[in-house]
Design goal:
Elements lengths: L1 H7 L4 H29 L4 H29 L1 H18 L5 H13 L4 H12 L2 H30 L4 H22 L19 H4 L2 H30 L6 H20 L7 H12 L8 H7 L1 H21 L5 H29 L2 H25 L22
Helix pairs in contact: 1-7, 2-3, 2-6, 2-7, 2-8, 3-4, 3-5, 3-15, 4-8, 6-7, 6-15, 7-11, 7-14, 10-12, 10-14, 10-15, 10-16, 11-13, 11-14, 12-14, 12-16, 15-16
């Protein structure tokens, strides 16, 4: 645990991770809050709620690179101000908006979502040394897992006792508080020895958005597509067994083991290639389809859980190392877009597989999506003949995305 203590001892790191956890917990719950509002307050179908969720997700995916580019050009506080104010307006007006306007407003809110995750990843890359970075990104991945475990569950519990409009206000308040907290903290997004942020210092996109970066983004897309598919396959399996009420228990086991895996991975002396971790995650997912009831399913998802946070942390680490300082905001924005797109497509693709076969087909489809992304990432990284531009004077470890020599 020495490496984690060293990371948390970095000035400003502990408050950054704490504020980020608050904001990310709210952001992971925003879709659930809007779903509960549409279904309970507007008395509309889940299909209508899905339309609002899709609009918000599409906005987040499209807005990530744009906001990242603005951070590179205009600075952190300017972008946070430009996103916090629209979030205040959106979440305050959610309870009075008719469905048609809510649909468009959700897309705009996603487009201008407070960029908590990209900013946190940029700050980690700037505030840590090369030797501390893997442990730092492991903590960031663990925080992400905790947010997914806590956020939606809290919203569902609150919606059972409070008005859905009040719940939406609470989610919006937490998002705004997180954005304001990061603005007050104002973490550095560039190391002291990195170049300034002038437009003239920005490398051209083709100089850094090459095959190695494409490999990492592809694997990020595949990883979240797999994770979204696992959640749906768990529900389908337990519904067939008449045990759907135990789905929360299985998802909790998946989340807890992911936290454990991330903490263990952060203490390892040497990193593993992203393609290898993602490939193992895909292989560990497929056999979970053999489980027929909740105790066996809890046991079956342990292996996948242990590999989840390590896979996500290596993706963040690789993006931070491959992106030069002048475009790190845009690169982390592209990473967020890839992850959001994977989450958005994972459920429908796995749902088709379940409808066409059996619930076990959902685990197979999710696992194969991860394996395909790992293979694609491996082949793309092998095609890269020239080293990527180094974002700092420290040498770039090739095994972050490429096979270990």
């Amino acid at each position: 645990m020495t490496s984690f203590r060293q990371v948390l001892a970095v000035p400003g790191m502990t408050p950054l991770l704490g504020i980020s956890l608050l904001a990310r917990t709210a952001i992971t719950a925003d879709v659930t809050a809007l779903t509960m509002y549409v279904v309970l307050a507007l008395d509309m179908s889940y299909a209508a709620a899905g339309g609002v969720a899709a609009a918000l997700t599409a906005g987040v995916a499209l807005g990530g690179p744009l906001l990242g580019r603005m951070i590179d050009r205009r600075g952190l506080r300017t972008v946070l101000l430009a996103t916090v104010v629209p979030q205040i307006v959106f979440w305050l007006t959610v309870p009075v908006l008719p469905y048609a306007i809510l649909l468009g407003a959700s897309f705009a809110a996603g487009l201008l979502m407070v960029p908590v995750q990209p900013v946190t990843r940029q700050a980690i890359a700037a505030m840590t040394t090369a030797g501390q970075r893997r442990a730092a990104f492991a903590l960031e991945a663990v925080a992400g897992e905790l947010s997914y475990m806590v956020g939606p569950a809290v919203v569902i519990l609150c919606a059972a006792t409070l008005s859905p409009g009040v719940v939406a206000w609470g989610v919006g308040a937490a998002i705004v508080a997180g954005g304001a907290g990061i603005a007050l903290l104002d973490p550095p997004l560039r190391a002291e020895d990195e170049a300034g942020g002038d437009a003239a210092d920005r490398p051209r996109r083709r100089e850094w958005l090459g095959t190695r970066m494409a490999a990492v983004l592809t694997m990020g897309f595949g990883a979240t597509m797999l994770l979204a598919g696992i959640d749906l396959a768990i529900i389908a399996t337990l519904e067939e067994a008449g045990q759907v009420s135990w789905a929360a228990m299985v998802v909790a086991v998946l989340g807890v083991t992911s936290v454990v895996g991330g903490l263990v991975y952060g203490t390892l002396a040497r990193p593993l290639p992203t393609w290898l971790l993602l490939g193992l995650l895909g292989l560990a997912t497929v056999p979970a389809g053999l489980a027929r009831d909740w105790p066996w399913l809890c046991a079956a998802v342990i292996a996948a859980g242990l590999l989840t946070a390590p896979t996500l942390s290596t993706i963040s680490d690789a993006v931070s190392r491959l992106a030069p300082a002048g475009v790190r905001g845009e690169a982390t924005g592209l990473q967020s877009s890839a992850l959001s797109a994977g989450f958005a497509l994972g459920s429908p693709v796995v749902g088709v597989a379940i409808d066409a076969s059996v619930p076990a087909g959902g685990f197979a489809a999710a696992g194969l999506a991860g394996l395909l992304a790992a293979l694609t990432g491996y082949l793309l990284s092998r095609r890269s003949s020239a080293p990527a531009p180094s974002p700092s004077p420290t040498p770039e470890p090739r095994d972050a995305v490429a096979p270990t020599p």
